[in-house]
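Standup, Tuesday
Yesterday: got the pipeline producing structure tokens again.
Today: sanity-check two examples.
Blockers: none.

Example 1:
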Amino acid sequence: MKKKSEVTLKQIIQVIHRAINSVDNRLLNHGERVAYIMLNLLRAQGRHSEKEILELCAISIFHDIGAYKVAERDKLVTIDTVAPFDHAIYGSLFIKYFSPLSKLYKVVLTHHFSSMYYTENKIDIISEEGLLLNFADNIDRIYSFKKASTIDYMMSNKKEYLIEYIELLIDADAKNNLIDKLIDGSYVEELYDFWGTKTVTREEIISYSKMLAYSIDFRSEATVKHTILVEAVSYQIAKLYGLDEDTLEEIKVAAALHDIGKIAIPIEILEKPGKLTDEEFEIMKSHAIIGYNILSDLKVDDIRDIGTLHHEKLDGSGYPFGLKNSDITPEMRIVAIGDIVSALLGVRSYKEEFNKEKVIKILKNMTQYNKIDKNIANLFIENYDFIIKEATKESSDLMAKYLNITDEYNNLLKGFS
């Protein structure tokens, strides 16, 4: 019997699906159908274990995640006709560097290459599973307007597809009424029940949550740079504060996830080049409760609270819950200060990086009015140079990896164009 404390891949994907759908529901609803088609094709093919099929179906639901980057945001409906390689390449690099499914990044990279393209160009990074994903992607698009006559349509245009893939589709449909289930919607429950067969570890939960957190980079580069520094500064403060190794790891993870709720904040507010209006600020503030809700019911309440409650203030004037004093743990207080420091040091279109003296003055002012922890703030101030030096060094590798995606993206795009 399954323990109540266990979390399944079904729950993780539902959480990510719910969060990203808050931005736009077109791609992941398409992703659900493609994942279900892949499940049936892979089973009919019989070459992969159930564990491998689970992972391939998980990557399938996120295969268009690259289309969420800002440059693609207004092309969601036409991504297959307008620069289709762009989002496939960017999405594959995101999966490669910022997800627990990194070993499958070539599947995403390949999903806009037809078998014909592969045959003509013989590119060595093409993935066989990616080619099948391309076929599944096509099935969904054809099904959307051909419905019950989907297979007949594909048979009449079989020169465009591998005959092996068409035979897989016919076999899968005969065994499991694939097309009928797509039409009546019953595929959804079956797909999620399949993901429900896999329990995930705490480490996997954290890894998938980080994947969601970093997906914000498609909408706001400044938010990701801020998050990277929050994680590094919070960790350095926590070390000097004398916390044990397990708690230090909790703080690192919580800091990485602290702004996860910003995925649902409109880009016009996230990237506004100036002061927010009162109405816009209220919308921005909602990221705290959104993040709290995203991470609830995943058995990581400790990390959820440390990360998403970083805007609570000791005097009770913070949000989302108006906690005060003893309600706010030392770990939460540390990440709160890490968040403030990173924001003050960040460069935005409307502000330069604040210098040391100004950062210290703001922190002291906040302690005077009982907004943040005086002892932790003083610990940071007394060790300012050391903490900033170590945090900069610690975050440099991750920052470089993030920034280098652009170079790798451009190089791959040239190779495929």
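Example 2:
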Amino acid sequence: MQTEVLSDLFPLLSTANPQTLEWLFSIAVEHEYPAERAVLMEDAWGNAVYFIVSGWVKVRRTTGDESVAIAILGRGDFFGEMAVLDESPRSTDVIALSTVKLLSVSRERFIQILFKDPQLHHRMLQLMVRRLRQINLRLQMRLAPPAVKLAHTLVSLGESYGQDFDHGKEILKISFKDLADVTEITVDETTKIMEKLDEKGWLKIDPVKNVINIINFKQLANLAAKI
């Protein structure tokens, strides 16, 4: 993978200098996992940061026998940085939702990169603050109607990781259970809302391609804005 591709694919690396990208490319390790495979397990010590080259993963937290998805990440995003930076065990699992290709950079090398490249260090802080803002927004939305909350989840996934087609976005066919968990509504509510959106022609689920086509993205975004 060329350094220009790294810069274009990963927002975290968009401000990194060419020397940083060259070094990162030379030390990164490639991985590929099939769907449903655990990429990282809870309580494992953070020894690397992972970059998603292609595919989708979910971040989940397990309590007793119950597992709850707390985030869904796709192409161009990264994970594992929290455990690396605070030198503590991971508090979540990461599970592949589709075939996923990753690049990993060891903890020691990643810390070296951050110290060597102030622009990358600053960009890292920006993206971590953005994630905190997203968490705050989810807290603000807890009293919003379920349809608004689910629309916000779908729009966020489409904007962050979706593939463009005509006037819409194509995202992975994520299970209703995972969509419900991330949105913090029930599976029954998720099922009814998705059926309604399908009836209205705002989205279509394609089981053959295993994708959700968000056809009327603008209308869905308008619904998501009604917080």
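Quick observation on example 2: Residues 118-140 form the longest helix (23 residues). The CA atoms of residues 150 and 183 lie 6 Å apart.
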